[in-house]
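Sample A.
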Amino acid sequence: MTDWLRPHPIIPVVVADRSDIGADLAQALDAGGIACAEITLRTPHALELLTAMSTGAPHGFAIGAGTVLDEEQVDRAADAGATFIVSPGYDQAVVDRARARGLAVLPGVATASEVQRARRDGLDAVKLFPADRLGGLAMIEALAAVFPDVGFVPSGGVGPDNAAAYLAHPAVPAVSGSWLAPRRELDAGDLSGVTERSRAALRARAAA
């Protein structure tokens, strides 16, 4: 499975309207055992937050950019300190630019045709999005049966009630979701629950 995903079975999806919490958020996640975060490029200050996290995070903490839709966003994310790129769909230009910039890339897929295309392009992990709308574990089981050498990272509808069940499946190297750091709390500057939710997620994974 993709080497960069091995240390990161849970990828927090961060959507926030402020950037001054970057370093503290990285520290809070790291204290809970989560050493990565995906900053979605859906808010005006997302790149500033990405920069703040990449400069203030503990050593070894992986920062990614999510909801990346084009080559320009790949470049801007790379310049801000991202080490991996996540996109909602499969865009060849995004994949190629991310690779050219030396970034790991996790493109979104929703069909077997897209998985086959990713595999042909040399990728061994993809994001299944939106996972809950596509059938969740049942969809992953169906795809894994014909693509046994591809890992599926479910995103969309993933939370504390089903993350461990996803991670128990051998075709799932990681899950991504926003429940560890909810947008409402981040925008209020409240990071008090981030560390404990991170620890709880890892405990649930270990017990699955």
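Sample B, a different protein:
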Amino acid sequence: MSEITETVQELLAIVGLPAEYRNESLTLLEKGNSRYVRDLKLNFSSTLTSAHLSEKECGLVALSIAVNNNNKVLIDFFEQYSISKDATPEEIAEAAGCASLLALNNVFYRFRHFTGKEKYTQIPARVRMQLMSSPVTGKEFFELMSLAVSAVNGCEMCVNAHENSILHLGASEERVFDAVRIASIVTSAGKVIY
């Protein structure tokens, strides 16, 4: 067995997939004997730890990104991981709801930002966002998940608004950075694990 195949199998074991599981992307990396598989495994493993987020928070941020990216394998993995770190069903539901709500907001506010027309800021949005008003995960953490999803979805206006809100609520820039780092790694892993 090649070192790359062994690393692929180790990565698959982390997410609970059988050693023989393959998809198009994994097959390309394995056939090309890509050293990137090792980086991917190490990067993915690093989503589970942070000096600034609890393990449960790491899992919930990652779950929200997996839902945002519609990646069933990673949704299942991060749901189980979050449960193992004492996330409640309500917190897990909120991570999924955050992904959906922010997808809406990111499209809507990106449109307003791109056009730059004052008229569009004057027209009522007519969208409900009750989930944001009193989140079960707490306002600061919900804003952190919102920022992570917004970064993945590329909404500059939302990223800036959520980052400002998080810092105003007393969170550190290191928490912000780690949430976005996790979001980027989950998005990257989802290109290969699906």
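Observation for Sample B: The chain has ten helices and no strands.
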